[in-house]
């Protein structure tokens, strides 16, 4: 089982994170901690997400709504990256002639007109 962190531990671990920001982002459902004994429990992925949120907020001054939209897009990109990696692994297992045929089809679809 991976580590779980209390709110106090998260506030200490994530640079530029304040209690007000954390509360706002949890209430906006941008970060979804687990309910635990004595309060929320945060996972490693939550800490990374919170650091990204702080970086975006500090760099661009984005509102919680805008941050939610940016994080949603980043989540979608991460899903697509995983799907692309699985597709590439599946294609690598195919015979050379299949890979060549697929490359030709892709080249005709993305080649400039």
Name some characteristics of this structure.
mainly alpha; 68% helix; two-stranded antiparallel sheet; Multidrug-efflux Transporter Regulator, Chain: A, Domain 2; 113 residues; elongated
Structural description of this entry:
This protein is mainly alpha-helical. 68% of the residues lie in helices and 5% in strands. It has helices spanning 7-13, 19-27, 44-60, 64-92, 96-110, and strands at 34-36, 39-41. The chain starts with 6 loop residues before the first helix and ends with a helix. The chain has a domain at 7-84: Multidrug-efflux Transporter Regulator, Chain: A, Domain 2. The protein is elongated, with a radius of gyration of 20 Å. Strand 1 (34-36) and strand 2 form a beta hairpin. A two-stranded antiparallel ribbon has the order 1-2.
Global geometry: elongated
H/I helix tally: 5
Structural class: mainly alpha
Oligomer: single chain
What is the beta-strand fraction? 5-15%
The CATH topology label of the domain at 7-84 is: Multidrug-efflux Transporter Regulator, Chain: A, Domain 2
The low-pLDDT segments are none
Strand order of the largest sheet: 1-2
Q: If classified by CATH, what would the architecture of the domain at 7-84 be?
A: Orthogonal Bundle
- From the alpha-carbon coordinates, what is the Rg to the nearest angstrom? 20 Å
- Average pLDDT confidence is 92
Report on the biggest sheet: 2 strands, antiparallel
Q: What is the rounded distance between the termini?
A: 52 Å
Helix content: 55-70%
């Amino acid at each position: 089982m991976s580590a779980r962190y209390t709110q106090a531990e998260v506030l200490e671990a994530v640079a530029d994170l304040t209690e007000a920001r954390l509360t706002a982002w949890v209430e906006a459902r941008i970060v979804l901690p687990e309910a635990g004994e004595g309060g929320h429990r945060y996972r490693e992925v939550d800490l990374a997400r919170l650091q990204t949120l702080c970086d975006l907020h500090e760099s661009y001054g984005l509102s919680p709504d805008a941050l939610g939209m940016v994080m949603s897009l980043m989540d979608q990109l991460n899903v697509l990256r995983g799907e692309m990696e699985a597709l590439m692994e599946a294609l690598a297992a195919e015979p050379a002639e299949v890979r060549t045929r697929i490359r030709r089809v892709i080249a005709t679809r993305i080649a400039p007109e």
